[in-house]
Amino acid sequence: MSAPFEERSGVVPCGTPWGRWYQTLEEVFIEVQVPPGTRAKDVRCSLQSRHIALSVRGREVLQGKLFDSTITDEGTWTLEDRKLIRIVLMKTNRDAGNCWTSLLEDEYAADPWVQDQMQRKLTLERFQRENPGFDFSGAEISGNYSKGGPDFSSLEK
């Protein structure tokens, strides 16, 4: 089975009771469904290097220690169409081997199949970055791609 990944915009989401989260080599995205008509002043969001807290209208939605560290000053949240909160966290460790297996240390883990697809996507994203101009559309990753796949950086070009 091939990964549900489109070269430029594909994501491998991990569903949660409140929405979903997904990742790229550099960022972690969190999408939280909120009651229609929610206003920014109803939202309290705290983004720290290893901790996140989100409440809407006084009700805690998400709180805990993040799976890995992020760059605090680059984390953002937006309220879209008054019904979706999108949080973007910038990973501190940005290599393909840093595939988060869960959003928080002890919650919202990706099931094994989704985790496998996430790792494939990050490996393909790494290859794409290392080989600009190469057409990866239709590419499939197989074999040993865990921890970012094989390292070809020492080979002569």
From TrEMBL:
Alphabetical keyword list: Acetylation, Centromere, Chromosome, Cytoplasm, Cytoskeleton, Kinetochore, Phosphoprotein
Briefly, what is this protein's role? May regulate the LIS1/dynein pathway by stabilizing LIS1 with Hsp90 chaperone.
Ranges for region Disordered: 134-157
Write out the GO biological process terms. Answer: protein folding
Q: What is the protein's quaternary organization?
A: Interacts with LIS1.
Q: Name one GO molecular function term.
A: unfolded protein binding
Domain annotation CS: ranges = 14-104
Protein known as = NudC domain-containing protein 2
InterPro entries named among the record's database cross-references: CS_dom, HSP20-like_chaperone, NudC_fam, p23_NUDCD2
Main location (coarse class): nucleus
Where does it reside?
A: Chromosome, Centromere, Kinetochore; Cytoplasm, Cytoskeleton, Microtubule organizing center, Centrosome; Cytoplasm, Cytoskeleton, Spindle pole
Q: Which GO terms describe its cellular component?
A: centrosome; cytoplasm; kinetochore; spindle pole
